[in-house]
């Protein structure tokens, strides 16, 4: 008999006024009892609409049925048939616009908490599975991966399981991409990401860190080293700035720099020697997940007042609903329909003192289909601040395209690759994730890495 409760079983969380001062995980996860209760809300629909909402086609009703029977390890194995990072996806996927928005239980009441159940079984498996990943039989062929984000890690894992000798070349000193340097510890503990990377190492994947492809060696050099196919998953880490006066004042950060200092370089730890401005009044410009993460980090780094300045309305915000909700609970103040005009700085100290803003209203829809923000005349005002964090988007770094002859990119600087296989204009080079789509999501990057691995296998086999 299914559990016909209209609401998801709630997930315990840290109290907002406690958690906004620490970097420990906000959501605490289901207990086994909660998971059993929630799994019984799934109606196991024949046509599985939830699966059609998942970019990697996780077998959702099947894994939830196993949870309902208390077979948690089997449920984890079922998810891993199609998704290589379930503990990550269970935490950061925008389920509300993917699997859960297709759930029939959502028609009258809340959908089944698919993300929370995924997180539960993935965590359970991490705690209870003792066996190390078995090394597959080598097939004698070598592949290289550029970038150790979710796209590259997924591609590496799939190729290693097929017997390839896989080397991942990563520019930073740590593998994980945005999962390590961008998404904060309180949303995605780094130990979880590290565990996934360790599993790849057990499979035989080799990681070469501090290696910038395009500087240390080019893609063509890697071919000369004997790699037969190369996957580029170099992400979209180049920040866009506001292009308003005053952006060079001290105390203006790109969200990427700010989050890298806080997360990767551990500025939040008491003994860290990472330089960072511990600002008291901060504005974060933007409305996506990156803006929410930056704002919530700034609060935890000791700011008394944190504003999110966003030029459209709340309904247009691209951030996940849960992140907006959590940010509000933690005391972040949202300035909707507000656009930045100028960073005000002190000409003697060169430090930020404020952000001049203008009120907006929504006009006709623009090319993206969202209503265009239009300035309201005479509505300028200034926020009194000592730091501004810019989170209005990123694009791929030009290094790879400028050092790889024959690799076609589009006018946004993204590598042109076919969606189904990741094939690029350069023979033997495959690409996927944010480097191809521009800033997107973890699950889309993983899906691209997975499809490219299959295509690289095909490519190498056909060359023999
Ligand atoms: C702060 C933040 C929060 C986010 N929150 C969410 C969320 O909640 N949910 C969600 O689904 N998505 C979220 N995203 C988006 C998601 O993280 C990305 O879409 C995803 O990480 C893209 O994966 P990727 O593997 O393509 O690239 P990345 O994760 O960017 O990894 C690319 C890797 O390539 C390396 N690299 C780059 N150039 C080179 C080079 N020349 N040589 C060697 N290595 C190189 C980089 O150092 C990096 O490690 C967030 C992004 C950010 C920045």
Structural features, described:
This protein is an alpha/beta fold and 464 residues long. It folds into 3 domains: 16-128, Alpha-helical ferredoxin (Fumarate Reductase Iron-sulfur Protein, Chain B, domain 2); 142-237 and 395-463, FAD/NAD(P)-binding domain (3-Layer(bba) Sandwich), CATH 3.50.50; 241-392, FAD/NAD(P)-binding domain, CATH 3.50.50. The chain is built from 17 helices and 16 strands. The protein has helices at 16-19, 32-39, 49-52, 60-68, 72-80, 86-92, 114-128, 150-161, 178-181, 190-202, 219-224, 255-264, 289-300, 321-329, 399-403, 434-437, 442-463; strands at residues 142-146, 165-169, 206-208, 229-232, 238-239, 252-254, 281-285, 305-309, 333-335, 338-345, 352-365, 371-375, 381-384, 387-390, 394-395, 429-431. The strands form 4 sheets. Strands 3-2-1-4-16 form a 5-stranded parallel sheet. A 5-stranded parallel sheet has the order 6-14-7-8-9. Strands 10, 11, 12 and 13 form a 4-stranded antiparallel sheet that branches. Helix 2 (32-39) crosses helix 4 and helix 6 (86-92) runs antiparallel to helix 7. It starts with 15 loop residues before the first helix and ends with a helix. The structure holds flavin-adenine dinucleotide. Flavin-adenine dinucleotide is lined by residues 92-94, 146-152, 169-172, 177-178, 182-183, 212-214, 233-235, 237, 259, 289-290, 293, 320, 397, 399-400, 433-435, 439-443, 445.
């Amino acid at each position: 008999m299914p559990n016909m409760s209209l609401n998801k079983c709630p997930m315990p969380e840290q109290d907002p006024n406690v958690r906004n001062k620490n970097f420990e995980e906000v959501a605490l996860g289901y207990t086994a009892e909660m998971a059993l209760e929630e799994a019984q809300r799934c109606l196991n629909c024949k046509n599985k609409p939830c699966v059609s909402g998942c970019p990697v086609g996780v077998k959702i009703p099947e894994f939830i049925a196993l949870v309902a029977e208390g077979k948690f390890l089997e449920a984890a194995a079922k998810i891993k048939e199609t998704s290589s990072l379930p503990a990550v996806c269970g935490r950061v996927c925008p389920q509300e616009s993917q699997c859960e928005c297709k759930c029939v239980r959502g028609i009258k009441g809340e959908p089944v908490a698919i993300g929370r159940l995924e997180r539960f079984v993935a965590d359970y498996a991490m705690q209870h599975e003792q066996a190390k990943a078995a090394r597959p039989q080598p097939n004698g062929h070598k592949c290289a991966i550029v970038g150790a984000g979710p796209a590259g890690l997924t591609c590496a894992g799939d190729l290693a399981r097929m017997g390839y000798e896989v080397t991942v070349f990563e520019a930073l000193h740590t593998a994980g991409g945005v999962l390590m340097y961008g998404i904060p510890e309180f949303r995605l503990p780094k130990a979880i990401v590290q565990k996934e990377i360790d599993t790849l190492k057990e499979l035989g994947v080799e990681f070469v860190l501090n290696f910038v492809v395009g500087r240390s060696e080019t893609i063509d050099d890697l071919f000369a080293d004997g790699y037969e196919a190369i996957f580029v998953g170099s992400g979209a880490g180049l920040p866009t700035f506001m292009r308003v006066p005053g952006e060079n004042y001290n105390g203006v950060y790109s969200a990427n720099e700010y989050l890298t200092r806080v997360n990767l370089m551990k500025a939040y730890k008491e003994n860290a020697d990472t330089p960072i401005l511990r600002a008291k009044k901060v504005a974060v410009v933007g409305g996506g997940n990156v803006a929410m993460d930056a704002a919530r980090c700034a609060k935890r780094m000791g700011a008394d007042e944190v504003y999110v300045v966003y030029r459209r309305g709340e309904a247009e915000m691209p951030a996940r609903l849960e992140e907006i909700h959590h940010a509000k609970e933690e005391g972040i103040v949202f300035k909707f329909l507000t656009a930045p005009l100028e960073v005000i700085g002190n000409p003697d100290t060169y430090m930020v003192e404020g952000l001049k803003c203008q009120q907006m209203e929504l006009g006709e829809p623009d090319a993206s289909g969202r209503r265009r923000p239009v300035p309201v005349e005479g509505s300028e005002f200034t926020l009194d601040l000592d730091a501004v964090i810019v989170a209005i988007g990123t694009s791929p770094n030009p290094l790879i395209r400028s050092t790889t002859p024959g690799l076609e990119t589009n006018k946004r600087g993204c590598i042109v690759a076919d969606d189904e296989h990741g094939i690029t204009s350069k023979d033997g080079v495959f690409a996927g994730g944010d480097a191809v789509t521009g800033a997107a999501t973890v699950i889309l990057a993983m899906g691209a890495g997975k499809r490219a691995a299959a295509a690289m296998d095909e490519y190498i086999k056909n060359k023999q």
